Amino acid sequence: MTMVRDIDTRGMRHCETTALGVLLRHEGVTWSEPMLFGLGSGLSFLYWDSKAMGFPFLGGRVKPFELTRNLAAGLGLELLVHETTSARRAWEQVVAPLDAGRPVGLQLDSYHLDYFTTKVHFGAHVVAMYGYDEENAYLVDTEQQGGAVSTSLASLARARAERGPMTARHRSFTLTVPKDLPSPRERIIPAITACAAAFLDPPIANLGHRGIEKAAGQVPKWLERTGDPHRDLTRAARLMEEAGTGGALFRNLYRDFLGECAELVGGGHLHTGHTLYAEAAALWTEVAELIAKAGESGAATHLEQASTALRDLARIERNAMQALIRLEP
């Protein structure tokens, strides 16, 4: 058996920040989950639908692994990423740092993991691995998935080899913290303004505040879009609140990040952004509840109410980001 020593196996609310937390705490960095999410400029919005999809998807963060890349670039962390089509080589790339006493991040499809009770393919799931023996891999996943967990090596291999939307080619990664690591205070404003710029000027109408407006126009049609409203609408609501988002489609995490920043940096624009994202977080939870009610009852009025709330959210978040982008170093 190989186990990395002195691992803090606390699970957090989101999978990628949970894995980042494990890797960084092993390097002596103990920042909060909201701080990791915010410094990685993790907040976004996506309305995703296509003929190949069974039902539309609402996303609340940047694309898979971009948060990790943003965090590493902003803080000067050494991010070493491996990808390969070879399962044998992929295992060697994981074993090497583990045998050297370092935890490893993995991107994989959670469908195949033994401890996952909800069997839905999701190829952008991220875990931290800190040990293995002849039969099992020892992982840290989110709090809701159990924190310190294990899965068979065979299931881990299937999860890493899966191909499909959002998957990566056996991606593994390690982080090394420099001796002159900047404090969060130094990187707060660049991370916030970069996030705000992307949100306010998205390249397509499905993203950022424009994406929320698009969702407002599409959500009332969701009962026509599905043959099983109870399944699809209640699942959509659950994904917004429970599927590693920290609640409110990641807005709770960003609200808490801005709250920490307000204490560290202060300033009127930052306080405005924090206040507006507190309002937005509560409203996103209300939207999820309305979508769930529509799924349970089949009543279109709940989706009309959700649409109205989404239009308010597009305005609130646009105003918040317009305040935050004005932050000056």
Detailed description of the structure:
With 329 residues, the protein is α+β, with helices and mostly antiparallel strands. The chain folds into two domains: 2-30 and 78-176, Cysteine proteinases (Cathepsin B, Chain A, Alpha-Beta Complex); 184-324, no CATH class. It has helices spanning 15-26, 33-39, 66-75, 87-99, 153-161, 184-200, 208-218, 222-225, 229-242, 251-264, 268-297, 300-324, and strands at residues 2-3, 43-48, 57-61, 78-82, 104-108, 125-132, 136-140, 148-152, 172-176. The strands form two sheets. Strands 1, 4, 5, 6, 7, 8 and 9 form a seven-stranded antiparallel sheet that branches. A two-stranded antiparallel ribbon has the order 2-3.
Per-chain topology:
Layout: E1 2-3, H1 15-26, H2 33-39, E2 43-48, E3 57-61, H3 66-75, E4 78-82, H4 87-99, E5 104-108, E6 125-132, E7 136-140, E8 148-152, H5 153-161, E9 172-176, H6 184-200, H7 208-218, H8 222-225, H9 229-242, H10 251-264, H11 268-297, H12 300-324
Antiparallel strand pairs: 1-6, 2-3, 4-9, 5-6, 5-9, 6-7, 7-8
List keywords for this structure.
2 domains; DUF4872; alpha+beta; 329 residues; 7-stranded antiparallel sheet; Cathepsin B, Chain A; single chain; BtrH_N; globular; BtrH N-terminal domain-containing protein
Largest sheet: 7 strands, antiparallel
Shape: globular
Structural class: alpha+beta
Order of helices and strands: EHHEEHEHEEEEHEHHHHHHH
User: Which percent range describes the beta-strand content?
Assistant: 5-15%
Summed up, the helix count is: 12
Query: What's the number of structural domains?
Result: 2
Helix percentage: 40-55%
Low-confidence stretches: none
> How far apart are the termini?
49 Å
Number of DSSP-assigned strands: 9
Q: Tell me the Rg in angstroms.
A: 20 Å
Mean pLDDT: 95
Domain Butirosin biosynthesis protein H N-terminal: 14-142
Protein name: BtrH N-terminal domain-containing protein
Organism: Streptomyces coffeae
Pfam families: BtrH_N (PF14399), DUF4872 (PF16169)
